[in-house]
Write a structure and sequence with these properties.
The protein has 13 helices and 20 strands. The chain has 465 residues and is of the alpha/beta class. The chain has three domains: 238 residues, FAD/NAD(P)-binding domain, CATH 3.50.50.60; 106 residues, Guanine Nucleotide Dissociation Inhibitor, domain 1, CATH 1.10.405; 95 residues, Polyamine Oxidase, Chain A, domain 2, CATH 3.90.660. It is 30% helix and 22% strand. The radius of gyration is 23 Å and the shape is globular.
Length: 465
């Protein structure tokens, strides 16, 4: 028997079961606290969700999610949870030009960063030698970009034109790459966000631009397997629990979380919900953020043909309405399925879904021979109007920190201040940052955020500004 009184572990409630909340719970589970995760929906995963294939009966992701080799916290979480067997690392990026010419672009494994990008940048067959050189110069200029006096006002498009990037290079490289990576139109995103893509996503490390593609449906990967791992680590996960109030004590600290008539006491709360939901629950903590932040829509066009029509795992379709196309995973039970993802899709085809499907099908038949005689069996258009945070000039100054003026209330979500755009990596980083802050408040040790990929001396010299 113990010789002294038993001290109960502190209780942390994580509100929200998206990637930010799941990451926060995972980090807190490695400390000495009790963790309860509350999710309003039936399944966890947030926007990384799946639905039933209407043709083949398998699970299909609402919208294709991919990470990159630079996403160190995403990869670390998947490794810790034993999910890395369901991730495929693709080193080759396929670009299909306006005339249908294909470019197989693979960074070098021999040359040091950033010289490893030479085969990728100069392998694009739809560019002339002069355009390739201009693209290389633009990449280096962007790497050295610093906003004047700390104030960013220019958009990526304005800045690229200012430094003399050819319009064709902008339209056929910068636009599809930046819009796909950031989920927002090139004429709206800030230059700093575009620089993040160029440096951390391409220049920084030989592995940075690798595409990390889930080979299992996201609903199974995160909603089932990651949740199961968390429960095995002692986290209590309760779905279908809508939080209606964050209850405060007389000293202003959080005392409990209310779900309808049920009040759940706690020692700290990590609020990992979208910014509008956070503003409704704690208007004194995020009173202005909900007005100053904006979302950007992403549309996924799901197509089911009577045979597989895409002969590469994925491809960037430049100069078209379609931006990225992803082939259905072999063995997934989704025969003949492919998905076209279009970022910054506000006003797309004036909202005419059938017209959009017709356009996308015509573009696929133009560039993939197998699609020309294939029969389209079904189509579904899925649009999330606020899929990502719109990273416009100056938005980082509006993104709140994990800590708040309420000592035991912490914010998480890809909309908070993480130093990253609104991505899976940004969401997971936010969860870890909030968990570390909560642990510090409770006097517990929580695993730190995983640092970014190391930069060699040449990269540090180039990006020094």
């Amino acid at each position: 028997m113990s010789g002294g009184p038993q001290i109960e572990s502190p209780h942390v409630i994580v509100v929200g079961g998206g990637l930010a909340g799941l990451a926060a719970a995972a980090a807190l589970a490695e400390s000495r606290c009790r963790v309860t995760l509350l999710e309003a929906r039936r399944r966890c995963g947030g926007r990384a969700a799946s639905y039933e294939d209407p043709v083949g009966g398998g699970l299909v992701d609402a919208c294709q999610h991919v990470a990159m080799g630079c996403c160190t916290n995403f990869l670390d979480l998947c490794r810790r949870a034993g999910l890395d067997d369901a991730l495929r690392r693709d080193r080759t990026l396929w670009f299909i030009g306006p005339e249908g010419d294909r470019s197989r672009c693979t960074p070098s494994r021999v040359l040091p960063a950033p010289l490893h990008l030479a085969p990728l940048l100069f392998g694009m067959r739809h560019f002339s030698v002069g355009e390739k050189l201009a693209l290389g110069r633009g990449m280096l200029r962007l790497a050295r970009y610093r906003p004047a006096e700390g104030a960013e006002t220019a958009t990526a498009l304005e800045w690229l034109r200012l430094i003399g990037q050819p319009e064709r290079v902008i339209r056929l490289f910068w636009q599809p790459v930046i819009e796909s990576a950031l989920g927002e139109s090139i004429d709206l995103v800030g230059v700093g966000a575009a620089r993040k893509v160029a440096v951390d996503g391409f220049l920084a490390h030989r592995d940075a631009a690798d595409l990390i593609v889930p080979t299992e449906p996201l609903g199974r990967l995160f909603g089932d397997r990651l949740v199961g791992w968390l429960e095995g680590a002692g986290v209590v996960v309760e779905s279908g629990m809508t939080v209606t109030e964050i209850e405060r004590a007389t000293d202003g600290r959080v005392a409990a979380v209310r779900c309808g008539t049920e009040s759940i006491p706690c020692d700290a709360v990590v609020l990992a919900v979208p910014w509008k939901a956070a503003g409704r629950l704690v208007p004194d903590v995020v009173p202005d953020v909900a007005e100053q932040l904006a979302g950007s829509p992403i549309t996924a066009v799901h197509l089911w043909f009577d045979c597989d029509v895409i002969d590469v795992p994925h491809a960037v379709l430049v100069g078209r309405v379609s931006q990225w196309v992803f082939r259905g995973e072999p063995g997934s039970g989704t025969h003949g399925h492919c998905q076209v993802v279009i970022s910054a899709s506000r006003g797309l085809m004036q909202g005419d879904r059938q017209k959009l499907v017709d356009q996308v099908v015509a573009e696929l038949r133009e560039v993939f021979p197998a699609a020309r005689n294939a029969t389209l069996r079904d189509a579904k258009v899925v649009t999330d109007p606020t899929a990502v945070l719109s990273v416009r000039p100056g938005v980082d100054a509006q993104r709140p920190a994990a800590t708040t003026h309420v000592p035991n209330l912490f914010l998480a979500g890809d909309w908070t201040a993480t130093g990253w755009p609104s991505t899976m990596e940004g969401a997971i980083r936010s969860g870890r940052i909030a968990a570390v802050a909560a642990g510090r408040y409770l006097g517990l040790t929580v695993p730190a955020v995983v640092p970014e990929l190391p930069k060699n001396p040449l990269v540090r010299l180039i990006t020094a500004g």
